[in-house]
């Protein structure tokens, strides 16, 4: 069922189908698409736990098996406020979110407020109860793909067997791009049945930072983006906003199909300790705004200097006369190294 929220004073309507994930922001006749949504974010990233027993080197949250969980009552308060702001869906993360002790209740409560829950998992801790609740209430689940991919393969099979829309998150860097190209040319059997593979630009943040892994250091950028956007590709493909500069520079993709980063404009991030940021990666770099009984999410959304700084960056002329500036909006405010168009 298509949901529509009309913002007459802002000159546009947002449409969202909770069953398919379809979303569109449609300006009124004669109006431009809005730069940001003063009423609140359409999407929220929420870290419900910093618990994880995997210890990945690139984890910018430094998650461990000693990580703390967000209290259930705090989560419910966040979702109540999100629903009041017209937030359509939330992306639950961590740590490994499905290993939160109240995860089933978290999914049920989110759905009961008219907000669609989605989450990313490393595949561990997916009990029958969690899988059943996921199938009933979630829009989609993303499995993080890590070599040697045995655990990834097993998790994909488990999710698809339970009738759950499954995406694969693949961290794209100067080394893994070789695997990405191989998969695009000839997808491995374990990817059969997934909804899409989503490529995430490697961020120079985590337990260990490998400068040589930055995507801009590969000589195969043009080859990769050509394959990933080819009408003949064998996999449905998506990109995070940090790949937009590459999509625009190396393909002929219609710019109306490309979204610049939404952080601070249409999305926000809430950490397990109730710190609020425009983007989750900022949590590793600076202090966020504290959500408490005196400060609401809407207060932070409309008044925070953090949020304002992101909006100022996206509206600036940092990239000058670049013909893609209106679509790319200057790239990432946090990591200049993610820009792969060659203009910076």
What would you say this structure looks like, in words?
- The termini are far apart.
- Helix 1 runs parallel beside helix 2, helix 2 packs parallel to helix 3 and helix 5 (177-185) packs parallel to helix 6.
- A 10-stranded mixed beta sheet has the order 10-9-8-7-6-5-4-11-12-13. Strands 1-2-3 form a 3-stranded antiparallel beta sheet, with no helix packed on it.
- The protein is globular, with a radius of gyration of 19 Å.
- Helix content is 26%, strand content 17%.
- By secondary structure, it is of the alpha/beta class.
- GO terms for molecular function: catalytic activity; iron-sulfur cluster binding; metal ion binding.
- Residues 38-240 form the Radical SAM core domain.
What would you say about this model in short?
By secondary structure, the protein is an alpha/beta fold. The chain has ten helices and 13 strands. It folds into two domains: 1-34; 40-338, Aldolase class I (TIM Barrel, Alpha-Beta Barrel).
Q: CATH class of the largest domain, please? A: Alpha Beta
Number of beta-strand segments? 13
Describe the global form: globular
Distance between the termini: 44 Å
Q: Return the average pLDDT rounded to an integer.
A: 94
The oligomerization state is single chain
Q: How many H/I helical runs? A: 10
Query: Class by helix and strand content?
Result: alpha/beta
Order of strands across the biggest sheet? 10-9-8-7-6-5-4-11-12-13
Uncertain residue segments: none
| CATH architecture annotation name of the largest domain | Alpha-Beta Barrel
Helical coverage, percent range: 25-40%
Radius of gyration: 19 Å
Strand content: 15-25%
Order of helices and strands: EEEEHEHEHEHEHEHEHEEEHHH
Major β-sheet profile: 10 strands, mixed
- Integer tally of domains: 2
Could you name the CATH topology of the largest domain? TIM Barrel
């Amino acid at each position: 069922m298509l949901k529509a929220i009309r913002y007459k004073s802002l000159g546009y309507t947002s449409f969202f189908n909770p069953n398919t994930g379809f979303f569109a922001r449609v300006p009124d006749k004669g109006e431009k698409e809005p730069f940001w949504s003063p009423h609140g974010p359409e999407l929220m990233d929420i870290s419900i736990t910093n618990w994880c027993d995997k210890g990945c080197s690139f984890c910018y949250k430094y998650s461990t098996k000693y990580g703390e969980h967000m209290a259930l009552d705090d989560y419910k308060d966040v979702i109540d406020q999100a629903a009041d702001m017209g937030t359509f869906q939330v992306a639950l993360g961590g740590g490994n979110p499905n290993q939160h002790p109240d995860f089933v209740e978290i999914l049920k409560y989110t759905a009961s407020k008219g907000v669609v829950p989605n989450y990313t998992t490393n595949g561990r801790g997916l009990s029958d109860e969690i899988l059943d609740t996921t199938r009933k209430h979630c829009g989609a689940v993303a499995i993080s793909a890590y070599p040697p991919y045995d655990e990834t393969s097993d998790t994909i099979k488990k999710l698809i067997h339970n009738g759950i829309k499954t995406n694969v998150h693949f961290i794209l860097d100067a080394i893994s791009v070789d695997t990405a190209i191989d998969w695009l040319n000839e997808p491995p059997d374990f990817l059969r049945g997934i909804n899409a593979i989503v490529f995430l630009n490697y961020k120079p943040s985590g337990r260990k930072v490998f400068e040589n892994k930055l995507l801009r250091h590969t000589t195969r950028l043009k080859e990769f983006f050509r394959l990933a956007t080819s009408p003949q590709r064998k996999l449905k493909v998506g990109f995070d906003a940090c790949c937009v500069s590459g999509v625009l520079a190396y393909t002929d993709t219609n710019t109306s199909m490309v979204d610049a980063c939404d952080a601070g404009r249409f999305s926000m991030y809430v950490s397990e300790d109730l710190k609020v940021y425009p983007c989750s990666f900022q949590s590793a770099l600076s202090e966020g705004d504290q959500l408490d009984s005196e400060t609401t999410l809407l207060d932070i959304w409309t008044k925070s200097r953090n949020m304002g700084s992101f909006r100022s960056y996206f509206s600036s002329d940092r990239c000058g006369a670049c013909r893609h500036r209106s679509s790319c909006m200057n790239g990432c405010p946090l990591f200049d190294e993610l820009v792969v168009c060659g203009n910076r």
